[in-house]
Amino acid sequence: MRSRDSASIIHADLDSFYASVEQRDHPHLRGKPIVVGGGVVLAASYEAKAYGIFTPMGGRAARALCPQLIEVPPRFDAYLEASKAVFEIFRETTPLVEGISIDEAFLDVSGLRRIAGSPREIAVELRRRVRTEVGLAISVGIAGTKFLAKVASAVGKPDGLLEVPIGTELDFLHPLPVERLWGVGPKTAEKLHARGITRVSEVAALEREALVGMLGRGSGHHLHALAHNQDPRPVVTGRRMRSMGSQQALGRARPRSAADLDATLIGLVDRVARRLRGSQRVGRTVILRLRFGDFTRISRSHTVPEATDETIVLLEALRGLLHAELPRIATEGITLIGISVSNLEDARAVQLALPFGGIDRRSLDAAVDQVRDRFGSSAIGRTALVRRGLSREAPRLPDRAEAS
Predict the structure, then answer these.
(1) Strands 34-36 and 70-72, how do they pair?
(2) What percent of the chain has pLDDT over 90?
(3) From the candidates 22, 98, 104, 169, which is the catalytic residue?
(4) What is the pTM of this model?
């Protein structure tokens, strides 16, 4: 039988991350209802959430709920910098850190009692450091499984610490609404509610096969296990991101010139390419995601011959994908552009092409990164990228294009 010390998995989750960074950096926004993003809410402060505003609600609907709402444009470089600072504190707390997004992670603090105290004492110190050193609130859950630690941090929000001691797990879990189960979204919740199932205890009371018949094999087995707190997964370190991306909400659908769209694309590519180089990653597949005025979405992908982190190579491939969609954009309007780079590899393990007979673009990228690291992201731009733009003729793609 496991001892009380087995409750040593911490789930740490920054509260309303993007909005909190904005309130930290702009004192006049503190205590006020704000959202990050205009056309679509990317993040909402707790003051805004009190009005029923949530992500990814449309900006118009959010303003209808809260006329005094303040909309703030996203600053992804600031969020990335804050995330790096917080994750540095995580790794100074324990080497066993599993990041699952830019603003949350699992930490295994088993075996640290003699040098750092109990899991609760470690969590208290972690929260103090994030507050004082980074200026952000973070909620923490402590439990014996990853699933329950995540549930505990969510129940403890905002700015809370909640521990679920070994032996009390089901007493804590079973009274909760079914939406607290990892993987229960609106559609699954609707199916459960239609059968009068609203609490985790009611899911736990069902036979496994009954859940399978109701939700399908994968979801049935998954929810049956979680309702009994069966989650054997350890905290996994060393996991690398499978892709890196960024997106920009454009507000309401209206006519936009090719130059405006290209400027947005350049900003997104510049941001993602810089992140790739900062993490020593290169990728082979670029993905363009668009949301049109009627809220339909598409994604288009393209694979280049060699893995790269070069801004211009990634940009030209994405320009080709965007150019192909210009006729539809002109007809239906566009409200969001997103990009990502996938099929990532470690740049140190890849033989990168040498700049024979041409410009050493990697050195240029490195020089631009150094200037921005020292003087800020707006300190230098790339005139050559803007000058080329989205031409009337489709850009030549370096390799085959794939639609998805």
Answers:
(1) parallel
(2) 52
(3) 104
(4) 0.63
